[in-house]
Amino acid sequence: MSSRSTLLFVSHSANFYGAERSLLDLLIGLRDFGCRVLVLVPGPGPLLGKLEDAQIEYLQIPYRNWAGSDYGLLAPFRIMVNVVAYARLARLLAREPVSLVYSNTAVVPIGALLARRFGVPHIWHLREFVEKDIGARFYLGGGLARKLIARLSERVICNSEAVRSDYEQLQSEKFATVYNGILSYSEFKPGTKKSGISEKNEIVLCIVGALAIHKGQEEALRALALLRKDGVNAKLRIVGKGSVRYVRCLRRFAKKLGVQQAVVWEGYCSDVSKIYQESDITLICSRAEAFGRTAVESMAAGTPVIGSNSGGLPEILEDVGPELLYTPEDHAMLASQIKNLVTDDLLYQTLSARGYRSAYARFTKDRYVSELKHIISRELVRGEASVL
Q1: Is 205 exposed, middle or buried (0-12, 13-18, 19+ CB in 10 A)?
Q2: At what angle do helices 18-29 and 293-300 cross, to 10 degrees?
Q3: 377 neighbors 315 (Cβ within 8 angstroms)
Q4: b/e code 249-277 from CB counts within 10 Å (16+ = b)
Q5: Which residues contact 283 (CB under 8 A, 6 or more apart)?
Q6: SS3 (DSSP) at 264
Q7: Which of 286, 302, 352, 376 has an alpha carbon 20 to 30 Å from 274's alpha carbon atom?
Q8: Quick one: pLDDT band at residue 339, thresholds 50, 70, 90?
Q9: Is 131 strand, coil or helix?
């Protein structure tokens, strides 16, 4: 592997949620890799500041997804933006050749096209279901998109077995599952929770992530209303941001349920570790969470997670216990699981300890970076061998 190799990483956004956090973990872990790292981002956002702090180069050029909920409406516009971005990037990279392209998401195709244009290896890291979780569709159709993902990649990495089974239709030898790793130990100041939760005057719940329909904040509000009606003095911290319209809808819904005084709207939070440490239970109400980084981060802080029994989340919680799962869209079951946990000190302490141990046994950043380094190294060597 040439020490002058340039690795191009393609992000679908400049936000700083799970996919971007995991990308940054990898990029920082590649500092001793002996290669130049360049990150492609489609616009401004908090990720850029994180890259600058880590002294990682980035290139900001507008490009668009090949999946969305605006199927048939804005698709032609998105295609045109990508054509322009592709032409511009092709000219730039002709002067600064790359040795490998790494797409950090299923919903951006431009990295695969650039890799094909320059004849270099392409790794596609799939971090979302698309149809199941965010309610979007591939503009080319799911079947064709999945075939192209396999065809236009030397390796396809999935962040859970659930995601792998959703995409792995052809060329299964290209696919690998690599679970995300959590942030560093020191950043979380982890420790298991103390017993005695049943004696608390107020139970603090939190739900962390982008405010969107597929993330299930409405479901959490419904469960909160049932808990309070059943005599449980619970508070819900909603962490994240979303469209102004959807946030207004959520606020109106909380008022309709009569729980507006028991909801704290935290907005976007760059340091979620404090949220987990100050909360008693983390809720994950997504339709189909591809991985569940929120779950791992919460468990690392000793805070039990109750999540929907769908997507990759059951894999994350499999070592902890079935008490932490509920049927998606069944807010009554969600409320029941919460109540069972907060009224049983021994169960709460047991699940807290199991989650803490599982987080650091299965989802360390060192393991995550090591596995991805191995895959990248092998593809770089293969790429150089194919040129000789």
Answers
A1: buried
A2: 70
A3: no
A4: bbeebbeebebeebbebbeeeeebbebbb
A5: 205, 206, 207, 220, 223, 236, 305, 306, 307, 334, 338
A6: strand
A7: 286
A8: very high
A9: helix
Residue 171, CA atoms < 13 Å, CB-side half-sphere: 14
Distance from C-alpha of 236 to C-alpha of 261, rounded to nearest angstrom: 10
Percentage of the residues of the chain whose pLDDT score is greater than 90: 69
15's tokens: 């936000």
DSSP letters for 324-344: GEE-TT-HHHHHHHHHHHHT-
DSSP annotation string for 202-255: SEEEEEES-BSGGGTHHHHHHHHHHHHHTT--EEEEEE--B-HHHHHHHHHHHH
Structural Rg of the chain based on CA atoms: 21
The residues that bridge with 40 in the sheet, in sequence order, are: 10, 59
The band of 171, judged by pLDDT with boundaries at 50, 70 and 90, is: low
Write phi, then psi, for 58 (nearest 5 degrees): -145, 160
pTM across the whole model: 0.87
CA-closest candidate to residue 22, choices 82, 104, 106, 143: 104
